[in-house]
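Task: encode each sequence below as structure tokens.

Item 1
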Amino acid sequence: MATLSLAKQATIPKLGVMNAVKKLVAVFALLMLSLTPVAPASAHTEIDHTTPAAGASVEAGVQNVSVVFTDKILNLADSTEIVISDAAGQAVEVSCVEVKNSSISADAFFPTAGDYEVTWRTVAEDGHPIDGTFSFSVTGTSEKTDFISCLDQASQGNVVIATPKAEPLMAAENTATDDTGIAWPFWVAGLLVIGVGVVVLARRKSSKG
């Protein structure tokens, strides 16, 4: 039966220690992958289209003004608003805003020709306030007939108007931020394990030397 040389016999325990350290590193890496929180995909609610389209031209009179989004929006109390003003900054009469799935809309009365700007705000499904503006032009003139604005309805006691600024819902962000701090103790423990393995390997080398 062949007898191992002294050099080979000394190499065997060293290889065993190195393999043990490699296994510890591999286990630590797998543990970290399983514990590291995965950030959710960041999807921002964007405008799909507006009515009228930005830069379009429509006739004077009652027109529906709407903003359609790529994702659903939240129908929170007093968090959605559409304000329309003419070139002189005068507000246009607007009906009460309707929120439906992924759109906001309101009827507006445009008495005269000119350029008009729409300023809107609402709350995305993830709780973040979103807002924007777009402009279009009106041609011709029109007389007001049976159009009733939201202010008219409020004066008649049919609706209550209150438009505080929509505040973001930070619960999801706070949860994600808190989760990132969970894994650090495991990183420390893993580094200690690797450090112990290196020390053991070094001692084995010195003792066999």
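Item 2
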Amino acid sequence: MIQITRIYSDANGDSHFENFEVPLKDKGDIGFLSDDEPAKSIVFREVAPSYDYDFHNAPDRQYIVLLEGGIEIETSLEEKRSFKTGSILLVEDTTGKGHRTKNLESKVRKSIFIKL
């Protein structure tokens, strides 16, 4: 299983966290694989060490994979969670009050966005 944290908006527009797991199937010598999931595009990203982006909506429904550097995300209900290098997020709050994101480390953060 691979753990992913989902960020989504409820009917009132408030953003929330939800953890879920993606099941993996034993494929023998090549390891354990999930089912295919279609994607539209992939974007590689770097942000400055000082990155602190106020409340915003995700531009697209997308996975974010943190390659280097950690972040703190705050929901509209003031819940905060920290995510380290290697974390995977599914960001779906494309409407509503959004979330806030800031770097936890004083270094360039690198990530991949996989748009769904």
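Check on item 2: The CA atoms of residues 12 and 96 lie 7 Å apart. The chain has a mean pLDDT of 98.
End of task.
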